[in-house]
Amino acid sequence: MRLALSYLSSAFFESFIALFQANKHFDLVFVFQPSPVTTGLPALLLKRLCGIPIFLWVQDIWPETLSATGMVRSKTVLKIVEHLVKIIYRSCDRLLIQSEAFEPRLKRLGVPTNRICYFPNSAEEFYTPMDVEINAPERSAMPEGFRIMFAGNIGTAQDFPTILAAAENLKNYTDIHWIILGDGSMRAWVEDEIKSRGLEATVHLLGRHPVTTMPRFFSLADVLLVTLKSERIFSLTIPSKVQSYLACAKPILAAIDGEGARIIEESGGGMAAPAGDARALAEKVLTMYQQPKAVLAEMGKDGEKYFKIHFERNSLINRLNAWIFEFSK
Predict the structure, then answer these.
(1) Helix (H, G, I), strand (E, B) or coil at 300
(2) What mean pLDDT value characterizes the chain?
């Protein structure tokens, strides 16, 4: 309930600010909606007051994401949020979706097909293949051996129980190392589990680093890891780190379902195990561990090619500009 009040109070103050913008001329309101969906409410206010069209870029499906992450368990609150989602989505002139799998859900909420546009995430321009210098500080943090690298939030959705169970299955392979960059709500739990499972020699928590240094760290990995919990709602999404990984021309190892897994395998840029299946993830690790480095390098190049075709930033911006132009005529 406290979280819901926080979201609503934030939307209230943003709407209050929007009132002072209503006398200015805007052609269109663009809303980036990762979380929460209430970010769309100030835009609705401007539309009602000024008749301004709204583009809303949907990154997560609500209220299912709230339920899947355990952030909200009250069925009453979830029903209220779903009703709010319907109001916001039906009021938008275009709903941009980061995954094509979102479309059926939006249609069930009453959004017309002609308002739904597939607009996937790209990656920041600094995500690019690179070779770091011999004396690079990132090298000093790296253990010798086969490096599996995870970068991002250490949270509930990322399913660290599966990662650690897979690491435990492979703990006798002392040259296979799991390197975790980032921080989050599960950090303390992960630290405790590493100790209790006796994984100190093979699982390494390197903490948070500036996002611009990620490609430097990625260049020192053999494979890059992406995981999500085994929840239907997560099978519909494409984790944004997939695009970042592909752009850096490194092979991807995944324990995810649905759209994310499809893209990784379709690209030829990696391998995917079912979400939540630690044994299958460990088997995929061994498969990649046994590959010659040249094969892994080719896999990374295939992923980079796929990124340039499907997720390249400038081509996506041109697509967005074309949609916006339709409303400026």
Answers:
(1) helix
(2) 89
Q: At what angle do helices 2-19 and 75-91 cross, to 10 degrees?
A: 30
Sheet holding 94-97, edge to edge: 29-33, 54-58, 94-97, 116-118
- Dihedral, 178, 183, 189, 195 alpha carbons, nearest 10: 40
Residue that has been written with the tokens 């400038």 in this structure: 314
Confidence of residue 123 (pLDDT cuts 50, 70, 90): very high
Tell me the pTM: 0.88
Residue 30 DSSP symbol: E
Residue 165 has pLDDT above 80, yes or no: yes
> Distance between alpha carbon 34 and the CA centroid of its chain, in Å?
10
Rounded to whole angstroms, the maximal C-alpha distance in the chain is: 67
| Nearest alpha-carbon partner for 275 in 157, 176, 169 | 157
Give me 249's structure tokens: 């021309």
Confidence of residue 17 (pLDDT cuts 50, 70, 90): low
pLDDT tens by residue, 226-241: 999 999 889 999 999 9
Looking only at the bridges linking them, the beta strands covering 146-151 and 54-58 are: unpaired
Q: Of 133, 92, 128, which Cα lies nearest the Cα of 109?
A: 92
